[in-house]
């Protein structure tokens, strides 16, 4: 099934990485969620593997994306938050794949760079993506910016819809009149369905696949903007979901002892007055955007099938991080609760395999190694992942089919997390002070922070000495100072609403 030397196939397979923004791992039909609608992703899962316990390298856009491209821990590349940049001249899995003989293409959001006054059109900065290893680039911005423009804005301007889009994003960010829109109040998009940003990206990527006739295999990243807020799916998708059918969030707020990280996010993104009906409405709007993106993905996969490429293409779907969606009365991310940490991972190999679900721990770093292995590209000298191809080839009856990593890590804003099958622990990355310990077996909803429990002192010491030492031994000291100073100076901020 995975033999690339068969007659009629190129020596190396194509790779399609579909990378969404803020898709939490439990919002997939193929893992048993009966309310969300993801028929196209479920279709990929029906011919591949679902990795149920995939973890983000960081519950925030820029750090997670920097780790995905570099294969480095956040503390190594140093992009601790959304005002820190990784070195584009450092290691890059995209560059390694290009050097292995691939045409490397990108359509969508990268978020590698802190915006600056005078950035101009994103096409003028394509050389930076070329440095990362991308040969073909079609970069867009997440939301309209006062300092730059991009291909998507050109598209809307040609249709005389740009101001409509800008006005909608302004209302989402700043509210209307004196009223801030809360997450369940996001209105549906007023654009035509094919004018929505992710529909546009799907169309551009699909057209590129149709036209591609190069003699090299391709590595294509389709980097969607959704289901990141605003939860503004077209009205037709809103109508697919009834709020009363949704499960409410974990309504229990964080309890003491509360880590500074959680306390900060509760102050910025807390919804202490959230009701169950509001929670259900927010979830229905979020699921509507996932359903919309699922259709976009289905359109791209359909083009692959029509062109006869699915027998020689790896299709991988994952996300940068999750979405709290009201759990613990929080929205968005930047915490290590499961809603923000757990992400989807579906891998459909060339030709497909019998489907199954792997429950072992995995992460972004394993995805990188899987793609490098599929491309027969050079691996990193210091490697934090393991290719998942042997697990896929061995199948669900293999003795270690349900065995994953011993530990996975995640980091953001100078906080670090280590997770084993049983325990999750977070610390201050600089002082190494323990901040949270959760027993994921007996407390899967993370209601009780056991960091001060005397009986767990041995667990805390073991995780400090064994895991966090491994994680933080090669911290980038220069980048740490930049992060402690507040990041790269800029007058431009992508401020999101405070509720």
UniProtKB/TrEMBL annotation:
Ranges of residues in domain Sulfatase N-terminal: 13-376
Pfam families xrefs: Sulfatase
GO cellular component: cytoplasm
Superkingdom of origin organism: Bacteria
Coiled coil spans: none
Keywords: Hydrolase, Metal-binding
Full protein name: Sulfatase N-terminal domain-containing protein
């Amino acid at each position: 099934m995975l033999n690339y030397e068969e007659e009629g196939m190129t020596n190396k397979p194509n790779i399609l990485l579909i990378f969404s923004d803020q898709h939490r791992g439990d919002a997939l039909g193929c893992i048993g969620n009966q309310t969300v609608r993801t028929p196209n992703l479920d279709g990929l899962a029906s011919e591949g593997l679902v990795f149920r316990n995939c973890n983000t390298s960081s519950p925030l856009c820029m750090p997670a994306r920097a780790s995905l491209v570099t294969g480095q821990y956040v503390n190594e590349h140093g992009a601790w938050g959304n005002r820190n940049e990784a070195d584009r001249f450092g290691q890059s899995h995209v560059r390694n794949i290009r050097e292995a003989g691939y045409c490397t293409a990108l359509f969508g959001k990268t978020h590698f760079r802190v915006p600056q006054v005078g950035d101009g059109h994103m096409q003028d900065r394509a050389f930076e993506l070329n440095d990362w290893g991308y040969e073909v680039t079609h970069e867009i911005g997440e939301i309209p910016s006062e300092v730059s423009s991009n291909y998507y804005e050109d598209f809307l301007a040609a249709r005389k819809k740009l101001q409509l889009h800008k006005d909608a994003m302004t209302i989402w960010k700043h509210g209307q009149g004196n009223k801030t829109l809360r997450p369940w109040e996001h209105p549906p998009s007023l654009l035509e369905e094919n004018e929505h940003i992710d529909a546009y990206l799907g169309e551009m990527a699909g057209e590129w696949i149709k036209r591609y006739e190069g003699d090299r295999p391709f590595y294509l990243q389709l980097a969607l903007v959704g289901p990141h807020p605003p939860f503004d799916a077209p009205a037709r998708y809103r109508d697919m979901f009834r709020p009363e059918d949704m499960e409410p969030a974990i309504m229990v707020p964080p309890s003491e002892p509360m880590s500074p990280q959680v306390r900060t996010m509760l102050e910025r993104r807390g919804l202490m007055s959230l009701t169950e009906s509001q929670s259900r409405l927010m979830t229905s709007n979020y699921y509507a955007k996932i359903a919309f993106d699922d259709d976009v993905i289905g359109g791209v996969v359909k083009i692959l099938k029509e062109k006869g490429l699915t027998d020689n293409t790896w299709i991988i779907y994952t996300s940068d991080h999750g979405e709290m969606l009201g759990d613990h009365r929080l929205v968005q991310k930047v915490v290590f609760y499961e809603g923000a940490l757990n992400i989807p991972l579906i891998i459909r190999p060339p030709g497909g395999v019998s489907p199954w679900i792997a429950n072992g721990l995995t992460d972004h770093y394993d995805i990188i190694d899987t793609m490098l292995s599929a491309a027969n590209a050079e691996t990193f000298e210091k490697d934090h992942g393991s290719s998942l191809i042997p697990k896929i080839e061995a199948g669900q009856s293999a003795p270690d089919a349900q065995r994953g990593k011993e530990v996975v890590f995640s980091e953001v804003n100078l906080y670090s997390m280590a997770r084993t099958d049983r325990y999750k622990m977070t610390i201050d990355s600089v002082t190494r002070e323990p901040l949270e310990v959760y027993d994921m077996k007996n407390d899967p909803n993370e209601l009780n922070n056991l960091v001060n429990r005397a009986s767990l002192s041995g667990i805390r010491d073991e995780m400090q000495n064994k895991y966090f030492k491994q994680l933080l031994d090669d911290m980038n000291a220069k980048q740490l100072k930049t992060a402690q100073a507040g990041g790269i100076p800029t007058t431009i901020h992508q401020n999101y609403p405070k509720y």
